[in-house]
Structures are given as structure tokens and as C-alpha cells.
Amino acid sequence: MRIGESGIDPYTRAVSDVYQDVFNEGSFIGKGIYDVDAFEQALGERLPENCILSHDLLEGCYARAGLLSDVQLYEEYPVRYSADVSRRHRWIRGDWQLLGWLLPSVPGAGKERQKNPLSWLSRWKIFDNLRRSLTAAALTLLLLLGWTVLPMAGFWTLAVLAILLIPSVSASLLSLVRKPADLLLSQHLAAEMRAAEGHFAQAALTLICLPYEAYFSLDAIIRTIWRMAVSKQRLLEWNPSSEANRDSTTLAAAYRTMWIAPFIAVVTGLYLVLVYPKALLVAAPILLLWWLAPAIIWWMSEPLARRTSKLTPDQTVFLRKTARKTWAYFENLVGVQDN
């Protein structure tokens, strides 16, 4: 899910970037305007062949990149959760393939190693991606330990909920106080209410899918380390989005894919019933969400029903007159002599 203010207005709502604002350096994400010769000079004979899956960040670290805030690029987003997971699984594998670029020496185009030319900021960007890939696993582990081992199960549950909700609350409040001058207060409040609903829905979805997110993230990390250290194969494995969108969409398929979430819910629930029943009162709502996670994701991934509307004769006449007046404006007032 991606939540933001609807509409297209790149001129008054340009987004800043922390790296660009503080360090005068952006992050290359695979799309942009660049000098081909300078790009080749910065990266020529620098990187090993057939070993780097996610090369965008690394290329930006070598060649440097800047934020272009007044240009917006649009691309198709995965239509189902399973397709999004497949893409993020690939991204995590690509991020962990860059683990070696945190070391003093890095692999080069040949077999020899080179002195790491990356700045500490670039290394931090790589490390931050690795940290982010472990977030779901860390939060899941914290919840399970808080319910089964650590004292004060309610405290640890609230701590995890706060971690998930604080970004949504902060984003909503910050956006609320930034009312554009050209927007009425009522329109601004209505738009922010819709955006806030989206932010909190995204936080709720993160909580629901937490065990499965942890599962596929750890799967990607372990696969990558094994392939880099042992097998040396399938380092560039990549399933196109079109293939991921062809996965089965039945409820049974959702439970087969996300089996880890209901499994953890059932096992944890049984343990709490037998060993620590007091914590079950705190954990039960979240465990229920985890047990229902495949069904919720299956329901969310179903295609939306198309809404059709039938115009009345008066509405049809009005639209045709408006279209004719619009065309007449350009026909009469905009010609060759005006270009």
C-alpha cells in the first residue's frame, strides 16, 4: 500500500530528501537523467560480473546522484500482495548481496579485491537497507518474547504498536499543519482525513502481516548468504512482475503461501493457554489477526468491482455542450499564428 495525497501537483508539493538536504547527495533508484560517459567512467571495470542483483544503489554510490524534485515518474504497482512480496523478496536479496561493500576491501571486475572507495554515507545507505530488512523479524520476535518470556506483556505489545503507529501519526500531523495556501480549510481537512485513514490502514496491515513479512525477509537473507558463500549460483534470480501476478488467487493458496502466520498464532496461543494465560488476554487480538492474515490478504487482493454510472439525457447534453465549447475555444483562439 502506498498512501499519499491524491492529485497531481508537482510544483507546490515537491518532496525533499534527507540525504540531499543534509549531505548534498541523493540516492539513485534506477530512473533519472545521467551523463553516459561520466557514468561509464565512474563504474567501468569497478564491479564484478553476474554477482549484483540490485545495482541501483551501488551505482549511485559510485557515480553520485542528486534529487530532482520537480519531476514525477509513474510506474505500475503490483496489483496483488503476493506480487509485491515477490518484488521485495528480490530487493532484499539484492541488498544483502552488497554486504561486502561495508568492508575495507571490495570485489572488483576480476578476482582481485580493491580498496573500498565508498564514502561512509554510502556505506550507511547500504547498512540501512540491511537494517530495514530485519525490522519485521525483530518486531515479531519482540512480541513473542514479550508474551512468553519477558515480564509485562502489555508493555511490550504497546511498544511494538507504538513503533508501527508513530510514523503514521507523525505523517498525519505534519501533513495536517501544512495546509496549501490555495486550498480551502474544509477541503484540506477532508483530504487529510482520507490520507490519515490510509496511513493507519497501512500500519494495521503491517501488524497483520508481521510474521509473514519476517518469514520471507529471513528467507531472502538466508538464501542470499548461502548463494554468496557456498553455492555461488542463482545470484541474479529474478521473476518478472508479470509472472508473479499469475499466482493462484484462491483462499486456499493464500493459506498455503502465508502458512507461517496462522502457524505462529496457533502455537503461541496454545503455549499461552497452558503456561502463561494472563498474557493471552493481551496477545489474543493480535494472534487472531495473524490467524486471519491469509484470508485478509486474499480479500484485499481480489479485483475491485467496476462501478458503472448511467448518465441522464440532461447530463449527456450538458457534457456535449461543454465539450463543444471547449473545442471551439481552441478552434477559434488557438491557431498556427499563436504558436
TrEMBL record:
InterPro entries assigned: Glycosyltr_2/OpgH_subfam
Transmembrane segments: 133-150, 156-177, 253-274, 280-300
Entry membrane topology: Multi-pass membrane protein
One of the record's GO molecular function terms: hexosyltransferase activity
Keyword Nucleus: no
Domain of life: Bacteria
A GO CC annotation given for this chain: plasma membrane
Keyword Amino-acid biosynthesis: no
Subcellular location: Membrane
Keywords assigned by UniProt, alphabetized: Glycosyltransferase, Membrane, Transferase, Transmembrane, Transmembrane helix
Name assigned to this protein: Glycosyl transferase family group 2
Species this chain originates from: Thiothrix caldifontis
